[in-house]
Amino acid sequence: MWWIKLKDKEAYEDLMRKYGTEPRILRDDGDYIQVEFSQAALTTWIQAGYWFGGPPNIFVRTYKKCLTFFKNLL
Q1: 27: left (phi > 0), else alpha (psi -120 to 50), else beta?
Q2: Residue range 9-19, pLDDT digits in tens
Q3: Contact 68/61 with Cβ under 8 angstroms?
Q4: At what angle do helices 9-18 and 39-47 cross, to 10 degrees?
Q5: Domains in the chain, number
Q6: What DSSP state is assigned to residue 10?
Q7: Domain that includes residue 32, residue range
Q8: SS3 at position 40
Q9: Which tens digits make up the pLDDT trace of 63-74?
C-alpha cells in the first residue's frame, strides 16, 4: 500500500489498467490517496519519479500550505 498525491490519481489508474490490473483506492486523505500497486506498475511508477511513500503527516501538510501561500504572493 502506497500513498500518492490526489493529482496523480488519473496517472495511477491508467498505469494499473495498462498492466492489466484494476486500480484500487483504499483511503482518501484530502490531497493524498492510499492505493495498491501491482509489482510491475509500482516499478514503473517509481522509475517515472512520482511521489510515493508513507502517509502524509503534519510536516508535509504544513510544507505544502507554505508553498501555496508563497506561490500566491508572487
Answers
A1: beta
A2: 999 999 999 99
A3: no
A4: 130
A5: 1
A6: H
A7: 2-73
A8: helix
A9: 666 777 777 887
The count of other CB atoms within 10 Å of the CB of residue 64 is 14
Nine-digit cell string for 2: 502506497
Query: Cell numbers 503527516 correspond to what residue?
Result: 57
Element (H, E) at 18: helix 9-18
Estimate the share of the chain in helix, then strand, then coil, as percent rounded to the nearest 5. 50, 20, 30
For residue 27, give the amino acid letter: R
Strand 2-5 and strand 24-28: the pairing is: unpaired
Dist CA 70 CA 74 (whole Å): 7
